[in-house]
Amino acid sequence: MAAPITAARSAVFPAHRVQVMGAMLNRTSASFSGQRASFPSIRLQPVPKRFQVSCSAKQDTINKVCEIVKNQLAVAEGTTITGETKFVDLGADSLDTVEIVMGLEEAFQITVDESSAQVIQTVEDAATLIDKLVSEKDA
Amino acid sequence: MPLPHPPPRTPGVAGARLFASLPPPPPSPLQSRREVHVWYVCPDELNDRSQLDMYMDLLSPSERNNALSMNGPRLQKDAMLSRALLRTTLSRYSKIDPRSFDFKKNKFGKPEILWRSDDSNMEWPLHFNISHTSSLIACGIAMDVPIGIDVEEKKRKTTKSILSLARRYFTPSEVEFLAKIADSDAQQKEFIKLWTLKEAYVKALGRGFSGAPFNRFSIQLETNSRIQISKAPKACNDSDSGDYLSENWRFALAELNSSYYMAVCIEDNSRGFENGPVPLGLKVWKTIPFIEDTLVSGTDAVKLIT
């Protein structure tokens, strides 16, 4: 998963976080080209939809999660929140986290059980889970 | 609220090395498995650059990196102080240099001390737990029993309504208890009390939020100030989560500096029957590590609710 690499990059070059929103899409594509390189026959075919869903959350979902998080944590103006931002790094405590989860449940009309909620560390984790729950709900 | 203010041990001195050579205060031994000691810092009051550098110096490289990856200087300082508080506190009870501790996480992510085989001067293993609010970081210490601690600002505002939070996360009996409280301020305070107690229990249990879902156990403050914990009745199609809940835990709930509720929970492994509930012995210090320690329990700063 790309997440550990990007987390390290953010720690070393914090200034680059500003560019990450746009860059993240490129990075997702970069990981696809990595896969394609090892499977030359696939390169000529469109990437199956299931690969896309499992590799990244929808940008739209990420944006919505960022907004809910910003409201809950009263994040300072000009703070950048991206997919790799960890909730704890924004100073979220346990009460904040459950309120964020509730906010997400309301916004997306889903239910998040405790064991799923526990493994959510970053904005992207939340968005990926949401996309999964929404698609299961709509299926 | 006037707190006792003993004069500082030394006047302000520049140079981290001088601070580091001061002996730590004499260890305050934990008398029994029923005693819990809490040491806390107020980050907003700690702004001396040389002091902060000295605390930073106590951290391991990974702790340092972790602190620096927090979002913004204030959160970075809090993260650093949290580790410095933990290390200096453990050092008080173990004669081990604060820099020497290694830590690990249990399989559910709860932080624990990684003892070395030569830590032979420890008769009983120390257990710790940390809680943060934006203005206070607390470290609870217990001897030989798992411990959980949670501190919350009394007046902390929630974005969701109290009852909607309770309905989503608490048990029906707890919701009923809160719903009966007409005054919204009083209701909010009772919610926070319950929240800190439940958090402290889950943290003591050490199995993560899903290991002890909040709606699987009820906590009740009884009229004789006893805290009662009981497992919620399980519906037959419920999952296994909550199977690890046990009721042999001791609690203390206190109001700290008139601004916070602090809940502490330790495992109660006393054998045999006792005449009535035996209270958890709680001692609380405000600390500026290496500079000043103030015992605040037994004063108005710490008002036991239980």
General description of the model:
- The complex is a heterodimer of chains A (139) and B (306).
- Chain A contains eight helices and no strands.
- Chain A is an all-alpha fold and 139 residues long.
- In chain A, helix 5 crosses helix 8.
- Chain B is globular, with a radius of gyration of 20 Å.
- In chain B, helix 3 packs antiparallel against helix 4.
- Chain B is an alpha+beta fold and 306 residues long.
- The longest helix of chain B is centred in the middle third of the chain and has 22 residues.
- The chains are: A mainly alpha (139), B alpha+beta (306).
- At the A-B interface, helix 6 and helix 7 of A face helix 5 of B.
- Chain A: Keywords: Chloroplast, Fatty acid biosynthesis, Fatty acid metabolism, Lipid biosynthesis, Lipid metabolism, Phosphopantetheine, Phosphoprotein, Plastid, Transit peptide.
- Chain A: GO terms for molecular function: acyl carrier activity.
- Chain A: It is found in: Plastid, Chloroplast.
Tell me the radius of gyration of chain A: 16 Å
Distance between the termini of chain B: 21 Å
User: SSE string of chain A, helix = H, strand = E?
Assistant: HHHHHHHH
How much of the polypeptide of chain B forms β-strand, as a percent range?
25-35%
Indicate how many domains the architecture of chain A comprises.
2
Ranges of chain A with pLDDT <50 over ≥5 residues? 1-45
Low-confidence stretches of chain B: 3-23
How many DSSP H or I helices of chain B?
Answer: 7
Helix fraction bin of chain B: 25-40%
What's the number of domains of chain B?
1
Number of helices of chain A: 8
Q: What is the helical fraction of chain A, as a range of percent?
A: 55-70%
**Global outline of chain B:** globular
Largest sheet of chain B: 5 strands, mixed
Instruction: Provide the CATH top-level class of the largest domain in chain A.
Output: Mainly Alpha
Radius of gyration of chain B: 20 Å
Mean pLDDT of chain B: 83
- CATH level 3 topology of chain B: Ribosomal Protein L22, Chain A
